[in-house]
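User: My advisor, Dr. K., asked me to get a structural model of this assembly before our group meeting. I'm new to this, so sorry if the format is off. These are the inputs:
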Amino acid sequence: DIVMTQSPLSLPVTPGEPASISCRSSQSLLHNNGYNYVDWYLQKPGQSPQLLIYMGSHRASGVPDRFSGGGSGTDFTLKISRVEAEDVGVYYCMQPLQTPWTFGQGTTVDIK
Amino acid sequence: QVHLQESGPGLVQPSETLSLICTVSGGSFSGYFWSWIRQSPGRGLEWLGNIDYSGGGTNYNPSLESRVTISVDTSKSQFYLTLTSVTAADTAVYYCARSFERGLFDSWGQGTLVSVSS
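Assistant: The format is fine. Below is the predicted structure of the whole assembly, which you can bring to the meeting.
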């Protein structure tokens, strides 16, 4: 199985400041079609996960442009340019390149 | 706007079979892949498997060995999870979700808690 490792696991943030989460995969997620197969999800308290980013860097419909995804191969990053209070929750990366699809452990983002 | 809703018993006896239904409304069933995902404190988010919209293809997580089956009834816009020989380790919130062939879960159910206990 492809192991997804996130860091940090806990990230206290200040509203208005940037934030960054790292996700490293045990195998390359770069497909021969040129796309990196990693998704990012946010699970807000008491809710189901919601899609933020797919294929490494594509924002899902309705996702604010303060969220961006990047990276290639085995190293990926989710960035929030200016954190807002509504961004608190647990962030997960996931790889759908190879079954079984696997998730990272999650990064809990809360307000300082 | 597509809506997914899980249903099924909230309590299952050890060694028995867990059965859940996901009902899809407000959107097309065709052209997508339909997954079951569970979440527990000890195991985080775990993808159990998926089925394509026609029911012609399934993928399962090998960690569940041969205990898991996912099926679909397109006439009812429903898909199903069956997990046999459950133990306390199968206690989790179970989600159904819609995706494309390679990830991109764009719609999730609200989740249903299933406890395995006598």
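One thing worth pointing out at the meeting: Chain B is about 0% helix and 55% strand.

User: Perfect, thanks a lot.
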